[in-house]
Specification:
Elements (H helix, E strand, L loop, with lengths): L2 H20 L17 H5 L6 H19 L4 H21 L1 H4 L10 H24 L5 H26 L4
Helix pairs in contact: 1-3, 3-4, 4-6, 6-7
């Protein structure tokens, strides 16, 4: 990783945490719809980057949100899970292109991008809400929160990526 990539990733990490804490943690539609766009850091971390580093940074990302949200570690667990399964999601979404390290998220076709982002967001949110509620008798609430928060987060992530993508 070059110095410019390092500073870019540090900036993304800090900005996403600050925006999540100051803005998105205060959005709560209907009591169970919350956006969590901070996971964008895990999704757009360089695909050729160190996977162990990504899992550690995922833990720090989730822990930072947990500290300021007083949520007891559920964000850290969900982020570590997402960072761990990210290679599987990339292989599922992009196939052979991922194996040969020839993909760029901004240049990938829309279908592969939506598959990758949607699968990652749903996986993260399912773990997050399962650990947050942690009661099998409230499975409908877990699924409802996962579904609606995932939809909102996916739309938000696509808007963010379109807004900040580089024009060629």
């Amino acid at each position: 990783m070059q110095n410019s990539d390092l500073f870019l990733n540090i900036g993304r990490f800090i900005v996403l945490i600050v925006v999540q804490i100051l803005l998105f943690n205060h959005i709560n539609f209907l009591g169970y719809v919350n956006p969590y766009p901070y996971i964008l850091f895990i999704l757009i971390f360089p695909f050729t980057g160190n996977k162990s580093l990504l899992i550690f940074l995922g833990f720090l990302l989730g822990l930072s949100v947990d500290i300021f949200s007083d949520s007891g570690g559920v964000h850290a667990a969900a982020c570590v899970f997402l960072a761990y399964i990210r290679p599987l999601l990339l292989k599922f979404s992009f196939g052979v292109s991922y194996e040969f390290n020839t993909i760029k998220l901004s240049k990938a076709d829309f279908g592969a991008r939506i598959t990758y982002i949607s699968a990652a967001v749903v996986a993260h949110h399912l773990v997050l809400f399962s650990l947050e509620i942690f009661n099998i008798s409230h499975i409908v609430l877990v699924l409802k929160s996962t579904l609606f928060s995932s939809i909102f987060t996916i739309i938000l992530l696509f808007c963010i990526t379109l807004l900040f993508s580089r024009k060629n």
